[in-house]
Design a protein that fits this description.
This protein has about 250 residues and is of the alpha/beta class. It is built from 9 helices and 10 strands.
Length: about 250
């Protein structure tokens, strides 16, 4: 593991987006040494499982630095996360709202919308996220169930190589933001997920260029006090180590 490479990548992400906070997606590499280093760098953490939370709790990471953006969570994980004090969760269904209302009452929630993933190596939009009309209704439903609808999240797909994918995603997010306002909901959080690419066998768009574009779009479209959450995984650790394996067939 190249610790300096991780430090370098972590120092770049979020640098060009105003009012942003970075939450490392633990699923990208949950190795204890990696987590300890990222903890020292004072990044936040995004988690999706009990195992990931156990790693963070063993290191004494405060719940204020942890969010969970998987829109479908197991009951055991949700109970553990809520008990630990995690207070920010994603959702994309009424069933998930019901679970959150029961096991994490009063928590902050952000709805995940589906956005185009065509230019990513690992599309996620068929798996997670809802369309705008459904999302607006879900935000209202969450509020009616005693939760605090605070924002919107999306994911352009893992290893996204088209800088304009974020334009499309933010246009869609803005449309939902306006719908929510018409319903009397005041949102303050925009979670742009991950998707930042790294170089493998070909050069890709740089994080700096993506973030300058995203920052400009957010400045033009959203309230100036909007909190921006970023969830890099691969972009922090993807080229900081080498995986060795034996190939026994093809």
């Amino acid at each position: 593991m190249d610790r300096e490479k991780i430090r370098e990548k972590a120092s770049i992400i979020g640098k060009n987006i105003n009012n942003s906070k970075v939450f490392y997606a633990v699923k990208a590499n949950p190795d204890e040494k990696v987590i300890k280093l990222i903890n020292k760098l004072n990044l936040g953490f995004e988690i999706a499982s009990e195992g990931e939370l156990k790693i963070l709790s063993a290191l004494g990471v405060s719940p204020e630095r942890i969010i969970s953006s998987n829109p479908v969570k197991s009951l055991s994980f949700l109970k553990m996360a809520s008990s630990y004090g995690v207070n920010y969760f994603a959702f994309d269904s009424a069933e998930e709202v019901d679970k959150l209302a029961r096991f994490a009452p009063g928590c902050n929630v952000y709805v995940r919308i589906a956005v185009p993933n065509e230019d990513s190596e690992w599309p996620l939009s068929k798996k997670f996220g809802v369309e705008l009309d459904d999302a607006a209704g879900l935000l209202s439903y969450a509020g009616n169930k005693g939760l605090k609808p605070c924002g919107i999240t999306f994911h352009v797909g893992s290893q996204c190589t088209n800088i304009y994918s974020w334009n499309t995603a933010l246009d869609k997010t803005k449309a939902l933001w306006d719908l929510a306002e018409k319903k009397g909901l005041r949102l303050d959080t925009l979670n742009i997920g991950g998707g930042y690419p790294i170089n493998y066998t070909k050069n890709v768009v740089k994080v700096e260029a993506i973030e300058k574009n995203v920052n400009s779009l957010i400045y033009d479209k959203f309230p100036k006090d909007t909190k921006v959450l970023i969830e890099p995984g691969r972009a922090v650790v993807g080229d900081a180590g080498i995986f060795v394996a034996s190939v026994i067939g093809k």
